[in-house]
Amino acid sequence: MKRKHPSLHHVGMTSCHFEQTVKFYEEGLGFTVKHIWGKDKRVFMMDMGDGSCIEVSEGGAEDTPSCGRWLHVALWTDDIRESYDRAIAAGGKSKLPPTFADIMEAKPEPVYMYFAYVIGFDGEEIEFIQEVKGREAWDQRVIEN
After folding, report:
1. Hey, CA dihedral for 41, 42, 45, 46, is it positive or negative?
2. pTM of the full structure
């Protein structure tokens, strides 16, 4: 496939809780294992559903420092409450439950969205984003438990 511009292929992480992390990404986020390789340490390429992947590598340690300047991985969703609840049920920890934001200063037009954060088994931050069409799309029931 010819791409017009670069797009996300994968984000890689080293896991110190490999089995739990793979299970969390499968059960909590709905990803599927696309490829597995590695002789000494396993690597699972986990498809997010659109061809973009999270690469989970075995062999991290609790004291492994994070590298780079990534703050979090943000995932599109059509149902913020379902995505958040599913991740929590699979063992993710809540950082921020579903919340509504209207970013009025965004250009060329304001952004209206729900967002939520969960923390995975290796301390990685995962954000869910559900954009909506204008403030009138806000629904208190979406962010209530």
Report:
1. negative
2. 0.79
- 135 within 8 A of 102, measured Cβ to Cβ: yes
DSSP 15-76: ESSHHHHHHIIIIIT--EEEEEE-SSS-EEEEE-SSS-EEEEEE---TTPPP-TT---EEEE
Would you give the DSSP letter of residue 101? Answer: E
CA–CA–CA angle 131, 132, 135 (5° rounding): 125
Over residues 39-62, the pLDDT tens digits come to 889 999 999 999 899 999 998 888
Six token digits for residue 70: 């990534």
Amino acid found at 99: T
Torsion of CA 11, 16, 19, 24, to 10 degrees: -50
84-114 pLDDT, tens digit each: 999 999 999 999 999 998 888 888 888 889 9
Q: Provide the sign of the torsion angle of the four alpha carbons 130, 135, 141, 145, taken in this order.
A: positive
